[in-house]
Amino acid sequence: MHKDEAAARLARQASEALAELLEHNRAHPTGPDRFDWSSDALDELARAVVTIGEIVERSTARSLAEDDDPEEILEATRDLATAIVRRRNSLLAENAAVRLRRARLAPVRRAG
């Protein structure tokens, strides 16, 4: 048996990139405009979670005991990805509501 150093290196790079994203997000606002800077990142994170689940499933499929459920990891990662997308969608709805309120409160300018 030998280590897959390339896989470990790639996983480490992914982990480091996620840690960097965490630091990057700490510098952003938490107010109503958070959707504007987070929506694309949330979409990509949902995709990443599903990919991580697939990697874990493939990496462990041969070593599972008979009573282990090979779909357990994939199901959990799909649930997390769905939760991420739901959060993104709730931010979208919140952002739309805030913009609508702002538009209603904005003074009407008349030509003339």
| N-to-C order of helices and strands | HHH
Taken as a percent bin, the fraction of beta residues is under 5%
Q: Whole-number radius of gyration? A: 21 Å
Overall SS class: mainly alpha
Separation, N- and C-terminal Cα atoms: 82 Å
What's the main sheet like?
A: none
| Form type | elongated
Overall helicity: over 70%
Point out poorly predicted stretches. Answer: none
Q: What's the number of extended β-strand segments? A: 0
Query: How many helical stretches?
Result: 3
Kindly state the mean pLDDT as a whole number? 83
Concise overview:
The protein is mostly helical and 112 residues long.
Written account of the structure:
The protein is mainly alpha-helical. It has helices at residues 5-26, 34-60, 71-105. Helix 2 packs antiparallel against helix 3 (71-105). The longest helix is centred in the last third of the chain and has 35 residues, at 71-105. The mean pLDDT is 83.
Lay out the secondary structure:
Blueprint (H helix, E strand, L loop, with lengths): L4 H22 L7 H27 L10 H35 L7
List keywords for this structure.
112 residues, mainly alpha, 75% helix, 0% strand, elongated
